[in-house]
Amino acid sequence: MAWQVYILRCADGTLYTGATNDLERRLGRHRAGQGSRYTRSRLPVRLVFRQGVRNRSAALRREATIKRLSRAEKLRLIRSQPGPQVNRVAAAPRVAAGPGATRAPARR
């Protein structure tokens, strides 16, 4: 099975990062309150990001990298995920980048 790194958004708005080789089974465990102590008390949870990786070692390294990111960086990562949306966290409105266009200031 392919390894994946994932981020869940908990009911209290916090983000949980994990790695698994069976995402559907792992999500079922989280939603049943058996996935981790952290998510158990913050149900329900929603999948907001997932990324496939080559193997377990790569998954654990990527998980550790994501866990070191600030909340703002994690939200940017979630918004930047290509492809169909996976219950993403709401993105800030985007400003058109063209001649004379200005960008909205970064939120802190």
Jot down its keywords.
108 residues, alpha+beta, GIY-YIG endonuclease, three-stranded antiparallel sheet, 4 helices, 3 strands, 32% helix, 21% strand
Description:
- The protein has helices at about 25-30, 35-40, 55-65, 70-80; strands spanning about 5-10, 15-20, 45-55.
- With about 110 residues, it is α+β, with helices and mostly antiparallel strands.
- It has a single domain, classed as GIY-YIG endonuclease (3-Layer(aba) Sandwich), CATH 3.40.1440.
- The relative contact order is 0.19.
- The model is unreliable at about 85-105 (pLDDT under 50).
The name of the CATH architecture is: 3-Layer(aba) Sandwich
In the CATH scheme, what's the topology name? GIY-YIG endonuclease
Structural class: alpha+beta
Could you estimate the helical fraction of the residues in percent? 25-40%
Round the mean pLDDT to the nearest integer and report it. Answer: 83
Task: Please write the string of helix (H) and strand (E) elements.
Answer: EEHHEHH
The poorly predicted ranges are 87-106
Report the portion of residues in β strands: 15-25%
CATH top level is: Alpha Beta
- Head-to-tail CA distance between termini: 38 Å
